[in-house]
Amino acid sequence: MNTSINLDNTEKAFAYKSDKALRKARFLFRFMKSAALVKLATKITPWLIKSGFPIKKLIQKTLFEQFVGGQTLEATGIVASTLSKFNVQVILDFGLEGGEKDDQHYDAAAEQFKKVITYASTQQNIPFISIKITGLTSVALLEKLNSDLLYLEKIQDQISFETRINELPNEELNKWNKLLARVDSISQLAAEKNIGLMIDAEESWIQEPIDVIAESLMKKYNKEKVIVYNTIQLYRQDRLNFLKNSFTHARENNYILGTKLVRGAYMEKENKRAQKLGYSTPIHSTKVATDLDFNDAVKFCFSQLEFISTIIASHNESSNLLATDQLISLSIPLNDPHVHFSQLYGMSDNLTFNLSDAGFNVSKYLPFGPIEEVIPYLMRRAEENSSISGQTTRELNLINKEYTRRRL
């Protein structure tokens, strides 16, 4: 067993990219180094798309090819096949954004998720798919059901979730029951096809009903193996305790906890809303505090590995190294089925491919869908790379290193 893990080996990191693809990636990350250009592009691109401006081809040849698996489900097979050559698996994600739609739209989304599950079950290296609850129901309904626990000082002001459900008007209760039916039918198919179902985390003001749904699905489908995973955003101050409480609930109800650990994706929105409405932000005030909670979450999950299946979804090199060191020090097999690493397609290839080469279970989170549908996702990727301190520089330095190596 090779336990000497070098995450800076660019030859392994970019072996799947041709010289042409590497040059395109270098151009793209150079562009994303300019926060001002990215901010301008993210503002005008959605408007240009809606107005019919001929910009789709440019997007497809740049951001889309870098971060998306294709416009159709079948197109993802090309990327998945390439990744499989390097023992990298795939988490398929239909690029569906939430919004206030009708039942016909939500039912169609549920059917699309089922198609993704069925397709994944026919592929050798697609063990997971990802879904967003806001693609299956009204955001307003989720917000109404969400507790104000984060924002109220007195715990006695809280109303139980069951009471909130019972107090819903018939129309909204019907919407809730339809949502439960949709997610259960999706989960049942995932269980039948043995495909892991990751439920994305979303904003704090709609997260509680999502957690309730995830917990009920895990209780039903995670008895003998892990099918359903809830996502925990460790930039929230309360989530480490939430993880521990989730584990306690799982043991009490005799199911295996499935959890995907992330730092978080809505920090700016969370802080702005907290400031606007006058409550304390649920987000940690420092990156150090977030990192500590994330690393403690990894350690906690590994200490209970028989009963917790963990997806370490991180682009942070230190956290990935900490996780690998923990596995090695605890004499846990590097490819233990309850441990999986994951990064976004198009980012942090040095982590993905070097971890895979060392023998760990690793995947790429691979979104797909029509350009119009994945534009919000692409804009977030561009903003994330330009706003996270050093992210674009790190990506670009690694690409340049490999570019230079190939020219020698």
Polypeptide structure, described:
The longest helix has 24 residues, at 170-193. The two termini are 32 Å apart. Helix 7 crosses helix 10 and helix 11 packs parallel to helix 13. It is built from 17 helices and eight strands. The protein has one domain (10-151, 158-407): Alpha-Beta Barrel (TIM Barrel), CATH 3.20.20. It has helices at 10-13, 19-32, 35-50, 56-67, 76-84, 103-120, 139-145, 161-166, 170-193, 204-221, 239-252, 267-277, 287-303, 317-329, 349-358, 371-387, 391-407; strands spanning 89-94, 128-131, 196-199, 228-233, 257-262, 308-313, 339-344, 362-368. Helix content is 56%, strand content 11%. It is an alpha/beta fold. Strands 1-2-3-4-5-6-7-8 form an eight-stranded parallel barrel, surrounded by seven helices.
Tally of DSSP β-strands:
8
Strand arrangement across the biggest beta sheet: 1-2-3-4-5-6-7-8
* SS-derived structural category: alpha/beta
Total count of helical runs of at least 4 residues? 17
Major beta sheet, specifics?
8 strands, parallel, barrel
Shape: globular
Q: Give the CATH architecture.
A: Alpha-Beta Barrel
Which class in CATH terms? Alpha Beta
Radius of gyration: 21 Å
Domain count: 1
Task: Give the structure's gist in a few sentences.
By secondary structure, this protein is an alpha/beta fold.
Secondary-structure topology with pairs:
Blueprint: H1 10-13, H2 19-32, H3 35-50, H4 56-67, H5 76-84, E1 89-94, H6 103-120, E2 128-131, H7 139-145, H8 161-166, H9 170-193, E3 196-199, H10 204-221, E4 228-233, H11 239-252, E5 257-262, H12 267-277, H13 287-303, E6 308-313, H14 317-329, E7 339-344, H15 349-358, E8 362-368, H16 371-387, H17 391-407
Helix pairs in contact: 2-17, 3-16, 4-16, 6-9, 7-10, 11-13, 13-14
